[in-house]
Amino acid sequence: MQEQVLDVIVVGAGVLGRSLALALAEAEPALRVGLSGPGGPGASPAAGAMLGVLGEVTAGALRTAHGRLRVDLAVEAGRRWPAWRRRIRALAGSAAPADGFGRGTFVLLNAVGSTLDQQSLGAIGRAGAEHGLPVEEVDPLEVPGVSALDNDRPLRALHLPDEAFLDARRWLATLDAALAALPNVVPLPAGRPLPHPDGYLLKTPELRATARIMVLATGAWTTQLVEELDPDLTLLPVVCTEGTAVTLTAPAALPTVLRTPNRAYACGLHAVPQADGTWYVGASANPALTPGTHPTPGALRFLLDAALGQLHHGLATARLLHVHHGNRPIGLDGHPLIGPTGRPGLWLLTGTHRDGLHGSPLIARELAAEILGAAPSAWLAPWRPDRTPIADWTADEAIAEAAAHHHALTAESRMRPPLSGSWPQALADAYHQQIADAYRRLPDGFVLPPDLAPLAYEHGPALAKLLARTIGSRRITP
Predict the structure, then answer these.
(1) pTM of the model as a whole
(2) 68, 191, 304, 422: which one has the fewest Cβ atoms less than 10 Å from its Cβ?
(3) pLDDT by residue (tens digit) across 189-213?
(4) Pick from 298, 295, 351: which is nearest to 324 by CA?
(5) Segment (H or E) for 165
(6) Are 266 and 452 in contact (CB under 8 A)?
């Protein structure tokens, strides 16, 4: 059996694991960095790679302290992307593929939207003004690449000229080429992380690699791996939202990103130009306690129906080239887990949900500096893995927000209740009551963020068990 003695092992080779390994190896050429992967169907290979700053903003995010911190982080990451991309491509040299990098996003308020979409459009404008980023109202009939059905057509559109995008799969290949150019990066197969007298062990049938420091950049699989590595280590759980997206032949030229505001627990419907001229169209979202391995017919049906109606009806005769499926990791309080744990030498890099690829230039370099002994990063300090759960919402606020998202989903699904009597309001009230009942069954003191509300009524007993095991009676961080 082969033996490897390293300084740091990064477990998980998604965009954040790759980026961190690269940042560590570049910062300290004498450091031997192992990078282990691939794992299961993570978020990175299925990503749409909108490098979204303002496009991700919602009214709910601007109403919460930690939501605003996430917006600030996204703005700073956007500023760092050009230099980061140049450096990675320089390291990769001639092996770097065309990555489809471009700028420009149109945010569409479609006829099948809801008041939530209108509120988020206003929030995008306010965030742009606060951060000095351009937001332009444009005629929706002049947005390139849109040919919506009349009943679903855009009624308003915002142009975000500075929002960038690229082809996620080409970017992962570029990172791989850059990593291969660094002699102190050691590729490792997927293996089992274990404690070891010298720190940590990554064990495979052919290899034993040890290091004093281990970073778990293992996405939606993190909680299970932490429990196997150290059952006594109490950390905030990581859950996920399963997502489905597709790559299609182009029904028309697509020079920029098209998207709707974030809605119904997910990034809005979006189309992203790919490096080969195809369209990436995403994405569904299904909150889950454990990662799923394959897409569901329901998710695919909903996505395609929305895309054909709201973006371009010509997609009906496009060719379906690939179905993407991934699991976006998210801390159970709705926020990332980044930094040291209570166990010496063990670090986490996970839970970034939709922000991992966009945030990677900032997160990788800030975390690498900390691992190498720098003072804790102000950007990462709020997301320590051993924190008590963040509570940005009261229970009543979370229930009301989640019910509003459910009601918005009925609009996007074209659900039409009878107009006699009080049926439309009765439907809204039923959503509110269903969610309120599910929240009341959760342990006292913990408020599930509205983005994860389906966990409360679809997996209530299992969620309560997970909370009792991993959070217990720890107080909540306001």
Answers:
(1) 0.95
(2) 422
(3) 999 999 999 999 999 888 999 999 9
(4) 295
(5) strand 154-165
(6) no
Q: Of 273, 242, 74, 75, which is closest to residue 168 (Cα–Cα)?
A: 273
Q: How many residues does the chain have?
A: 478
Beta bridge partners of 281: 246, 271
Torsion angle of C-alpha atoms 421, 422, 423, 428, degrees rounded to 10: 180
pLDDT tens-digit readout, 326-384? 999 999 999 999 999 999 999 999 999 999 999 999 999 999 999 999 999 999 999 99
Where helices occur in 162-259 by DSSP H, the ranges are 168-180, 222-229
Distance (Å, whole) CA 110 – CA 155: 6
Distances from the Cα of 359 to the Cαs of 48, 63, 79, 88, 352, in angstroms? 14, 21, 10, 15, 8
* DSSP summary character for residue 191: -
CA distance 156 to 140: 6
Compute the half-sphere exposure of residue 132: CA atoms within 13 Å on the CB side of its CA.
3
Cα 112 versus chain centre, distance: 25
Cα angle for residues 330, 336, 342 (degrees, 5° grid): 115
Sign, CA dihedral 47-49-55-56, equals: positive
Contacts of 60 (CB under 8 A, 6+ apart): 67, 401, 450
Provide the edge-to-edge strand list for the sheet that holds 213-216: 185-188, 33-36, 8-11, 213-216, 346-350, 337-340
Secondary structure (H, E, C), 249-273: CCCCCCCCEEECCCECCECCCEEEE
For 333-348, the pLDDT digits (tens) are: 999 999 999 999 999 9
Cα 178 to Cα 189: distance, rounded to the nearest angstrom: 18
